Amino acid sequence: MSTGAETLPASELATTSYDVDVSPALTAFMREGWADPAEPRLEPAEVAPYTAKRRAALSAALPGRAIVVPAGRPKIRNNDVPYPFRANSDFIWLTGSGEPDSVLVMVPDGDGHSATLFARSPAPRSESEEFYRDR
């Protein structure tokens, strides 16, 4: 007995999007007339001396091992409303930063570890739809 309702296979359900296609006219409009983004201000945080000591202690505790500490990603509720974001406590403790989508990578070197903080840059306004379509 058929109900007349069409069901999608499970493989298609995971990739189905509720977003509608954007017209070429809207895309062209959204790519023009934006002010240049402000230059990032790279000033040391007040906690920088403490976080360096914490990374050194972690380095001493895990010699010769690569260490990767992610900040985490914002979680979405209600389709387009994010929960208030708070970075992973370990990430904050080691970096002093709370930026989402950031990752601290510590690679072994001769004297312990060298640390690199990777942070997501803002979406370019003229090359991508991400800056106005990303929820």
Structural notes for this entry:
It is a single chain. The chain is an alpha+beta fold and 135 residues long. It has five helices and five strands, in the order αααβββαββα. It has helices spanning 10-13, 24-30, 48-61, 89-95, 130-133, and strands spanning 67-70, 76-77, 81-82, 103-109, 112-118. The protein has a three-stranded antiparallel beta sheet, covered by helices on one side. A hairpin with a 2-residue loop joins β4 and β5 (112-118). It is elongated, with a radius of gyration of 22 Å. It starts with 9 loop residues before the first helix and ends with a helix.
Topology:
Blueprint: H1 10-13, H2 24-30, H3 48-61, E1 67-70, E2 76-77, E3 81-82, H4 89-95, E4 103-109, E5 112-118, H5 130-133
Number of strands: 5
- Give the overall form: elongated
Please work out how many helical segments DSSP would assign.
5
Q: Write down the overall mean pLDDT.
A: 82
Q: In what range is the share of β-strand residues?
A: 15-25%
Distance between the termini: 40 Å
Order of helices and strands: HHHEEEHEEH
Output the radius of gyration: 22 Å
**Helical content band:** 25-40%
In summary, what is this structure?
The protein has 135 residues and is an alpha+beta fold. 27% of the residues lie in helices and 16% in strands. It has 5 helices and 5 strands, in the order αααβββαββα.
